[in-house]
Amino acid sequence: MKAADHPDLSGHVALVTGASSGLGRRAALVLAEAGAKVVALARRADALKSLEDEAAGSVVAMPADLIDRGGLADLARRAAEPFGAPDIVVHAAGINTREVADEVTPEGWDVTINLNLGVPFFLTQALVPAMKAKGWGRIVNFASLQSHRAFPGGVSYGASKGGVAQLTRAMAEAWSKDGICANAIGPGFFRTELTAAVFDDPERAARNAAQTCIGRNGEVEDMDGPLLFLCSDACAYVTGQVLMVDGGFTAK
Ligand SMILES: NC(=O)c1ccc[n+]([C@@H]2O[C@H](COP(=O)([O-])OP(=O)(O)OC[C@H]3O[C@@H](n4cnc5c(N)ncnc54)[C@H](OP(=O)(O)O)[C@@H]3O)[C@@H](O)[C@H]2O)c1
User: What CATH number does the domain containing 177 carry?
Assistant: First the structure.
């Protein structure tokens, strides 16, 4: 997207989780380019520092581990320190253990459901009071093809992402009357650390590309327009939706 096509997000503060790599890193940069101030959260401080340097003044790194449920309210409070309370939250932190059904462990299940589904809810719950006070908020969750489809090794991950689709509707039901729109992006296949196993197998990557209507896998820039839309005034009457950004994978 050209900068001129961006909605103007100046005056807004975004908290982006999973900002050290992949789609979260891209989201932080694009929101900053559109004028938002961005708090970038992930565990790897070095990767966040390079993002901070690239965005020159618009992004502040917040190294933190989201896995501790009890610490989320404190993280929400700390996220308000650099620029004021976030009125946009993008939940890009996620993991996929790829444990096959017969070998799913309680540990793998718990960490997946907690990080992919529990964190977006409880972190948002801690951010919502400030959004309500402002009468404006935007929540963007990350769903998946696996919100709708089953894939091998996708028991915990698919359950978490099916949950994200429903969580998005439930968030919309709870908070939209306060000016807070809750939506999700459902990516197709994008080359990131998360999908290294898929893209390291060229035949598998090509099969996935062929399954789309467009005929290719996603590039991180493909996420820019949908993300900015869901973080802007343009989506004021769009809430509770999962926007599939998948090149038409789920249309076929
Ligand atoms: N790529 C795709 O094709 C695709 C497809 C469908 C859905 N998605 C979804 O899109 C979102 C972004 O995925 P991605 O592909 O960009 O993955 P990624 O490159 O692997 O990024 C995942 C991010 O989550 C962070 N993270 C993991 N555990 C964390 C923890 N305990 N605390 C804080 N941060 C943590 C990682 O940072 P640290 O390691 O530094 O903590 C990293 O920044 C995920 O929800 C994923 O499920 C992606």
Answer: 3.40.50.720
Q: Residue 139: which domain range?
A: 3-188+223-251
Our answer to whether residue 237 is catalytic in this structure is no
Overall number of domains in the chain: 1
Average pLDDT over residues 101-130: 98
Is residue 149 one of the residues assigned to a domain?
yes
pLDDT in tens, 16-36: 999 999 999 999 999 999 999
Q: What are phi and psi of 66, to 5 degrees?
A: -80, -5
Give the pLDDT confidence of 120-152 residue by residue, as tens digits. 999 999 999 999 999 999 999 999 999 999 999
Cα dihedral angle (81, 83, 89, 93), rounded to 10 degrees? -60
Judge whether 203 lies within some domain. no
pTM of the model: 0.98
Assigned domain for 65 exists: yes
How remote is the CA of residue 242 from the centroid of ligand 1, in Å? 18
118 lines ligand 1 (CB under 6 A): no
